[in-house]
Amino acid sequence: MVNYKDLGLVNTRDMFARAIKGGYAIPAFNFNNMEQLQAIIKAAVETKSPVILQVSKGARNYANQTLLRYMAEGAVEYAKELGCAHPEIVLHLDHGDSFELCKSCVDMGFSSVMIDGSHLPYEENVALTKKVVEYAHQFDVTVEGELGVLAGVEDEVSAEHHTYTNPEEVIDFATRTGCDSLAISIGTSHGAYKFKPEQCHVDPATGRLVPPPLAFEVLDAVMEKLPGFPIVLHGSSSVPQEYVDMINQYGGKLEAAIGIPEDELRKAAKSAVCKINIDSDSRLAMTAAVRKVFAEKPAEFDPRKYLGPARDEMEKLYKHKILNVLGSNDKLANL
Ligand SMILES: [Zn+2]
Question: What class has domain 4-326?
Answer without folding.
Answer: alpha beta
